[in-house]
């Protein structure tokens, strides 16, 4: 996969992952317009992570009524943690459940947790992100989020949730649209007309 004009973002993520491996966990937010290439950066970064950290991936879905904690189910499945049993054991109470989730992910050692399309998150998922973000500093976890920068209600909810995480624990990484030269180069490589 050819990735142009994204070395700065990849270097920032590598630095943040190095911090997390060293015991200073962080939340990284890749923010940009729809189609800017946030997922492409996640894919390229995932390829670089290799054996240095466990990688657990999830995504929010654009459903008319989102399932509560959908991404947490994805992360739990990848971590081989029995989330439905944990929910039953905690009688649906979120704070003890989120604490159990933090323990389960921390037990993996250095970890990269990915939640894509946070702008589509349900309230419970945003609560989980807020919970984890407020406790991540002393972990070996890098929580990598992708979110759109549009003026939607979902983006406003994401901004509020991230605003409740200590500033030193959150790194916002902007993903600008590609330059015209990069678009022409990619189009040429694909045998397409860049105009």
Provide structural commentary.
This protein has helices at 7-21, 38-49, 70-79, 83-89, 94-106, 123-135, 153-163, 180-189; strands at residues 26-32, 54-59, 111-116, 141-148, 170-174. With 195 residues, the chain is an alpha/beta fold. It has a single domain (9-189), classed as P-loop containing nucleotide triphosphate hydrolases (Rossmann fold, 3-Layer(aba) Sandwich), CATH 3.40.50. The model has no long low-confidence stretch (mean pLDDT 90).
Write the topology of this structure:
Layout: H1 7-21, E1 26-32, H2 38-49, E2 54-59, H3 70-79, H4 83-89, H5 94-106, E3 111-116, H6 123-135, E4 141-148, H7 153-163, E5 170-174, H8 180-189
Parallel strand pairs: 1-4, 1-5, 2-3, 3-4
């Amino acid at each position: 996969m050819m990735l142009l004009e994204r070395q700065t973002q990849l270097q920032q993520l590598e630095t943040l992952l190095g911090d997390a491996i060293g015991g200073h966990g962080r939340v990284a937010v890749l923010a940009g317009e729809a189609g800017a290439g946030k997922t492409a950066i996640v894919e390229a970064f995932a390829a670089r992570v290799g054996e240095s950290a466990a990688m657990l991936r999830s995504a929010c879905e654009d459903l008319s009524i989102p399932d509560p904690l959908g991404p947490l189910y994805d992360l739990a499945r990848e971590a081989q943690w029995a989330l439905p049993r944990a929910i039953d054991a905690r009688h649906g109470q979120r704070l003890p459940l989120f604490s159990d989730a933090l323990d389960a992910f921390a037990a993996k050692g250095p970890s990269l947790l990915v939640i894509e399309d946070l702008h589509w998150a349900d309230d419970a998922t945003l609560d989980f992100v807020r919970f984890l973000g407020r406790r991540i500093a002393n972990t070996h976890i890098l929580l990598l989020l992708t979110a759109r920068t549009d003026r939607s209600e979902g983006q406003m909810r994401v901004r509020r949730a991230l605003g409740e995480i200590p500033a030193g624990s959150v790194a916002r990484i902007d993903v600008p649209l590609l330059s015209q030269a990069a678009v022409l180069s990619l189009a040429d490589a694909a045998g397409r007309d860049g105009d």
